[in-house]
């Protein structure tokens, strides 16, 4: 491969990462992948994986190249190792070899067992000069959900809650005040939460949150695909009239009872033996669910924290003060970023 300054390769890989992000919320359980093809310092084709089951990033980038003869003298940048197996689409490694693209820069190896280095190996055997693990940290970060799913055999888990300035997530409510969540933050925070829902695959609440707040867990203040709704109801005591049971969106209830499914409402029997969380996560992994938002309440959030089964925590903090009530979860994490949302804040933590 002709040597180029690091900054040149970096520029094109960063562009590939930027393209890959456009597939957010649409490609799961596949990874987000971006691809850029460069000839003599000029981008001649670029693409990204747009939707699950459709053409991969490399295919879309190659299709954008008007003069295919230039591919024999080009460099292809891709955020994730080209696939080497037949899935819903043909192997991208074969496409690269078919067009005799001589130079390939790969962001990171694919953790999926069907690929896992085989794509790079096929390219090298076919005569390609391959640079691997280029900006690997950024490329892994891009697909942290996908990597967690394949390496830990569970979804990427995001804990989410809103708390007051003095550290409470709710007032002490009596039953006559059930049905509506306690308002803590503001409209901009709600929009941010709904956008977050479109980015993730599933969302889980516990029995008390379903009963007290009657959440719909849908997307109303943003455009995008709603997550799969999940609720825990051990004894099937939740009222049938709750929004979660309206049949308006796919919903799974985890329960100890054997219950007949209804349209858009599925009941899955698990054992309540202290391993409920692991049973649910195993079931979600079997379904190909890459990511999960845990939206409460206090007991469920604390269970994930105490068992150290989480990856991110997104804490929304409002200006209200309750003085007493239901305390917010306590946890240890690395503050990755903070964002001001009018008179509220969002803090994003990673588990250490």
Structure description:
The chain is an alpha/beta fold and 352 residues long. It is built from 10 helices and 16 strands.
Entry keywords:
10 helices; 16 strands; 9-stranded mixed sheet; 5-stranded mixed sheet; 352 residues; alpha/beta; elongated
Describe the sheet with the most strands: 9 strands, mixed
Q: Provide the β-strand percentage band.
A: 15-25%
Shape: elongated
Q: Spell out the helices and strands N to C.
A: HEEHEHEHEHHEEHEHEEEHEHEEEE
Integer average pLDDT = 93
| Weakly predicted, low-confidence segments | none
Summarize the structure in short.
The chain has helices at residues 6-20, 57-64, 92-98, 118-125, 136-142, 144-152, 187-199, 207-213, 276-286, 298-306, and strands spanning 34-39, 42-48, 75-78, 103-106, 129-131, 156-163, 168-170, 202-205, 228-232, 251-255, 265-269, 291-294, 312-317, 326-327, 333-341, 344-351. It contains ten helices and 16 strands.
Mind sketching the topology for me?
Layout: H1 6-20, E1 34-39, E2 42-48, H2 57-64, E3 75-78, H3 92-98, E4 103-106, H4 118-125, E5 129-131, H5 136-142, H6 144-152, E6 156-163, E7 168-170, H7 187-199, E8 202-205, H8 207-213, E9 228-232, E10 251-255, E11 265-269, H9 276-286, E12 291-294, H10 298-306, E13 312-317, E14 326-327, E15 333-341, E16 344-351
Parallel strand pairs: 3-4, 4-5, 6-12, 6-13, 8-9, 8-12, 9-10, 10-11
Antiparallel strand pairs: 1-2, 1-3, 7-14, 13-16, 15-16
């Amino acid at each position: 491969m002709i040597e180029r300054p690091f900054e040149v390769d970096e520029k094109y890989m960063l562009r590939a990462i930027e393209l890959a992000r456009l597939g957010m919320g649409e490609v799961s359980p596949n990874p987000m992948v971006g691809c850029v093809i460069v000839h003599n310092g000029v981008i001649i084709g670029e693409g990204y994986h747009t939707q699950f089951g459709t053409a991969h990033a490399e295919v879309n980038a190659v299709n954008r190249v008007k003069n295919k003869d230039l591919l024999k003298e080009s460099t292809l940048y891709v955020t994730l190792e080209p696939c080497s197996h037949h899935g819903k689409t043909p192997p991208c490694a074969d496409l690269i070899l078919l067009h005799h693209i001589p130079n390939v820069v790969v962001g990171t190896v694919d953790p999926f067992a069907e690929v896992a280095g085989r794509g790079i190996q096929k390219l090298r055997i076919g005569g390609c000069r391959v640079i691997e693990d280029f900006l690997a940290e950024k490329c892994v970060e891009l697909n942290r959900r996908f990597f967690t799913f394949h390496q830990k055999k569970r979804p990427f888990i995001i804990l989410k809650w809103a708390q007051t300035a003095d550290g409470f997530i709710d007032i002490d409510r009596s039953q006559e005040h059930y049905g509506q969540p306690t308002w803590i933050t503001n409209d901009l925070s709600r929009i941010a939460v709904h956008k977050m829902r479109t980015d993730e695959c599933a969302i889980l609440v516990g029995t008390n949150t379903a009963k007290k707040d009657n959440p719909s867990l849908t997307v109303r203040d943003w455009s995008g695909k709603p997550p799969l709704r999940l609720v825990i109801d051990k004894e099937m005591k939740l009222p049938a009239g709750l929004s979660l049971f309206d049949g308006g969106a796919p919903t799974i209830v985890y329960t100890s009872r054997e219950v007949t499914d209804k349209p858009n409402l599925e009941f899955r029997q698990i054992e309540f033996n202290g391993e409920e969380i692991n049973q649910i996560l195993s079931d979600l992994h079997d379904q190909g669910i890459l990511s999960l938002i845990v939206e409460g309440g206090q007991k469920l959030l604390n269970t994930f924290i105490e068992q150290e089964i989480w990856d991110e925590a997104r804490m929304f903090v409002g200006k209200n003060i309750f003085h007493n009530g239901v305390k917010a979860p306590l946890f240890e994490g690395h503050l990755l970023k903070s964002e001001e949302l009018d008179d509220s804040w969002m803090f994003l933590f990673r588990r250490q």
